[in-house]
Design a protein that fits this description.
- The chain is an alpha/beta fold.
- Helix content is 50%, strand content 11%.
- It is globular, with a radius of gyration of 18 Å.
Amino acid sequence: MNERSKGTILVVEDDPRQIRLYAQVLERYRLVCVSTGSAAVAALAERVPDLILLDHVLAQGELGLAFLPQLKKVAAHVPIIVVSGTLDIAGQLAALQGPLSADYVIEKPVDIFKLEQTVETALNECGLGEAVRTLRSLEQAELVEDSDRERLFTERLARQHELLKRLRGAATHANVSELAGEFGVDRKTIRRDLRDLVQRGQLPAAVLPQSPDDV
């Protein structure tokens, strides 16, 4: 991978020392930092990140887990990692259970290697990736035929997930012809996928070709 950003992480944390640690360890990512759950909800209205790092004890007496359902409702496809030094085992389990739960819990003090690995795994395998696996499992259980619209939607979502992993943080437009050849679809399909990802805030507008004749 080149030196472009791997994606945007919304950091919900009120401790400046922890934020400095994140800035050092996750230097390849663009960090957007807020100190409260309320500010996190407002930030999601402005731009949807690729991942959320959520502390539990926040500024103004707010608790991160209290905002977890709101964050998931606004951005269900965005992986959330809870980072906390105050949650006991029961609290950690509660954060990971239910339909509006986090994907991972990391304890403070944070193990740098574990943080890096968890962020990478969450970006690549959780969120949209998990949705694709769920849909494919349902299709298999229901014996959906290859020509059915449900199968076509799943393959479209799977293709968009691969495009997202490849193009996060891209500063120039994508090579549509090359991508079309790799995925075995026409250029129009790739351009539509890119537009969808940009409209959802998952890719920067820079990936879109300026005209249909662009590569």
